[in-house]
């Protein structure tokens, strides 16, 4: 479904907030003088639908695979990289040019000495991935060596870094954020989940702390309906448990 269709369903069918007879609410932005006729601006409802979308993705994990937008350029001598905030869980990785698979493990598995973290200084061809979800980082191990640095131009003494592209097998959040300015774009969710998802957007709408919007009972009803459709005891609960277990290391992260 398109974003404008979801906003229309939420505004008309659930919130009953159309601004009055013969009012074209679709053309009203939060900067317009007419915005006072609406209890919730189109931009607000877009933000609520965005959060509802995130909640659905976290609970049912509908997006699983490799995505070029989330690839990492792995450079010689650099082990730790920022983990894209859209990634919920990493399963494995592959270095594309060398077709080398990297397996997921934790620091305890790699620490053969058991007394210090000197093993983190090992260099060579990467074989493993360690993810720190709390810090939002991912480590490749061993540290990539410099065998794929090339000198250019020859004998100039200047080197350029020839990295490898690391693609990750992940569960993720939506790749693009919703914007009311792009309301004709499709929302990244299967149609059968789209309308039930709006219960969470309605919950957020009724939780807005203003006299003409706040409705605690209405908010509670919508949250109950959403939880019934997308239970909290879902796949994401297991992901959070795994993250909690993995992050309990004495190395203080990566």
What does this structure look like?
The chain has 254 residues and is α+β, with helices and mostly antiparallel strands. The chain folds into two domains: 3-60 and 184-237, no CATH class; 64-172, no CATH class. The protein contains six helices and twelve strands. The chain has helices spanning 3-15, 42-60, 107-110, 191-206, 216-229, 235-246, and strands spanning 64-66, 72-74, 80-82, 87-95, 100-104, 123-124, 128-132, 137-141, 143-144, 150-151, 159-160, 164-172. The strands form three sheets. Strands 1, 2, 3, 4, 5, 7, 8 and 12 form an eight-stranded mixed beta sheet that branches. It has a two-stranded parallel ribbon with strand order 6-9. Strands 10-11 form a two-stranded antiparallel sheet. A hairpin with a 4-residue loop joins strand 7 (128-132) and strand 8 (137-141). Helix 1 crosses helix 2. It is elongated. The two termini are 41 Å apart.
Jot down its keywords.
254 residues; alpha+beta; two-stranded parallel sheet; 12 strands
Short synopsis of the structure:
The protein is α+β, with helices and mostly antiparallel strands. Helix content is 31%, strand content 20%.
Write the layout of secondary structure elements.
Blueprint lengths: L2 H13 L26 H19 L3 E3 L5 E3 L5 E3 L4 E9 L4 E5 L2 H4 L12 E2 L3 E5 L4 E5 L1 E2 L5 E2 L7 E2 L3 E9 L18 H16 L9 H14 L5 H12 L8
Helix pairs in contact: 1-2, 1-4, 2-4, 4-5
């Amino acid at each position: 479904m398109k974003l404008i269709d979801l906003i229309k369903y939420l505004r008309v069918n659930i919130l009953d907030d159309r601004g009055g007879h013969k009012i074209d609410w679709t053309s009203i932005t939060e900067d317009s003088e007419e915005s006072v006729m609406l209890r919730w601006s189109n931009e607000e409802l877009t933000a609520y639908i965005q959060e509802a979308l995130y909640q659905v993705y976290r609970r049912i994990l509908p997006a699983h695979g490799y995505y070029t937008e989330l690839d990492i350029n792995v450079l010689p001598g650099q082990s730790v990289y920022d983990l894209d905030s859209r990634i919920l869980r990493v399963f494995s990785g592959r270095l594309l040019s060398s077709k080398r698979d990297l397996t997921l493990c934790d620091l305890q598995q790699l620490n053969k000495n058991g007394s210090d973290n000197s093993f983190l200084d090992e260099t060579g061809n990467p074989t493993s991935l360690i993810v720190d979800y709390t810090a939002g980082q991912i480590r490749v191990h061993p540290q990539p060596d410099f065998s794929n640095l090339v000198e250019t131009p020859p004998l100039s003494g200047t080197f350029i870094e020839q990295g490898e592209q690391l693609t990750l097998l992940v569960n993720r959040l939506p790749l693009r954020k919703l914007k009311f300015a792009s309301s004709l774009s499709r929302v990244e969710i299967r149609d059968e989940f789209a309308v039930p998802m709006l219960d969470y957007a309605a919950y957020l709408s009724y939780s807005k702390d203003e006299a003409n919007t706040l409705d605690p009972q209405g908010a509670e009803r919508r949250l109950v309906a959403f939880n019934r459709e997308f239970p909290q005891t879902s796949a994401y609960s297991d992901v959070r448990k795994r993250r909690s277990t993995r992050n309990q290391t004495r190395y203080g992260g990566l």
